[in-house]
Predict the structure of NADP-dependent oxidoreductase domain-containing protein.
Amino acid sequence: MEHKSQIQVPRVKLGTQGLEKRHKALKQLPREQVQLATKFGVVSIDWSRMEVKGTPDYVRQCCEASLKRLDVDYIDLFYTHRVDISVPIEDTMKMGELKKLVEEGKIKYIGLSEASVDTIRRAHAVHPITAVEMEYSLWTRDIEEDVIPLCRELGIGIVAYSPLGQGFFGGKAVVENLPAESVLAMHPKFTGENLEKNKILYARFAELAAKHGCSPPQLALAWLLHQGNDVVPIPGTTKIKNLDANIGSVVVKLTHNDLKEISDAIPVNEVGGKKELNLLFKFTYRVSKFIRLGEAHNKLEGRTEGAVLDKGIEQEAKNALRTVKTGNTSALKELPREQVQLATKCGIISVDWTHVEVKGTPDYVRQCCEASLKRLDVDYIDLFYTHRVDLSLPIEDTVSMSEDLLLLFFICN
């Protein structure tokens, strides 16, 4: 069986090897033996803000730029780095040139990163998705609930980033002597009480690694490799010796009982700290998925896609609840439209924990309305809110557009 080299070249470098600046290294390898994966979608990033973009013209622009920088004729796997939730995924996939780029031979396969099950399913309906890259490790297993089952249903590969838990399972030196200048020093799992709590888990895990005659990182990677042939971990490293050690994980054999023992040693509910830095957390697939159903704050919460929300809406319909407040759901098609009052919002362009950007210009109001109608696949919205008031322009300008659209605005203060 022929093994191909897999090289990832991110557009925005987050502690990677920066191969884009050394594309000549690719010329030393037979192109047909290399599978080249790169991403697009992150326009800019600093430690307080990240901007994501998935518009059609930007997709093509990024692809053309990557081909030029890498000096190659095609990219094997082209990912969205993060999903631009302001643009329907269908636009990114179809109108956004991805499908055309495949047809033109400039990319071979399309991938998604940090995408929800709804986004994956909708994107796959436009063009087959080859791989979905998600954070997956012993202490980050939430994708086992919904993303992995869907990927297996659709025949999509799972690429596991941060398979060593942002380096936590990389060795005792990482746990005990984290450099102050390291970005991990700001990560919730590596600070304060969370770190002390996680050290206990590491000690327990290190004992298991010794039992299996391998290093902790090798055992962590072996555990992932045993989750299925469709799971491909991509550990990052800057040292050849660590690369060689990571490759050694493929010879670690684990039984079903071994896998259970390892999983039980790192209970997810005992891991201290959330998944991402505050900056990145809002761009993970879970964050935009939580909503409230109904005006009565009836405590029914669920994901904006999938069976949980569908059942919730159906149940609330039976209970005579007539208002559904949501950003996106296919369950609307299961109910008589005239019996549903649909409420959604416009006005917030971006948000993180330190900054909220609000926009209420007439053209943006119309753009948001049209996008919501398309995403929800409905002819009209019953109640259209401004999420927050844009103080940079007269409210009359914002509301005037609502009159043009024959919409009723409720202004949230």
Observations:
- Confidence is low (pLDDT under 50) at residues 7-17, 277-283, 287-330, 406-413.
- The first helix runs from residue 24 to 27.
- The first strand starts at residue 5 and ends at 9.
